[in-house]
Amino acid sequence: MSDLDIQTPTAFDPFAEANADNTGSGSKDYVHIRVQQRNGRKSLTTVQGLKKEFSYNKILKDLKKEFCCNGTVVQDPELGQVIQLQGDQRKNVSTFLVQAGIMKKEHIKIHGF
Asked: Where does the record locate the signal sequence feature (predicted)?
């Protein structure tokens, strides 16, 4: 009996990785692209976490022209400036930020359904 090693199951924390990302200063390095459902088939894409030295209005102007959609820059007290675009533009915005050289692909997180 003493030769057997008994392994007790440990609790699995599904949010351990998410909590680890939020604890350090590294969470500021990511650009988060999210989609929010409005009403019916309408949706809204938000881009947050861009560096402050970028001109949000110029990026928004290029995004609107590239994807033929409307958008705005919203000032949020907790998140800072957030770019909002009409429609589900997650993949488009991600490829645009990489091709324009604004962000690297590994620093972009895409959220949503």
From this structure: none
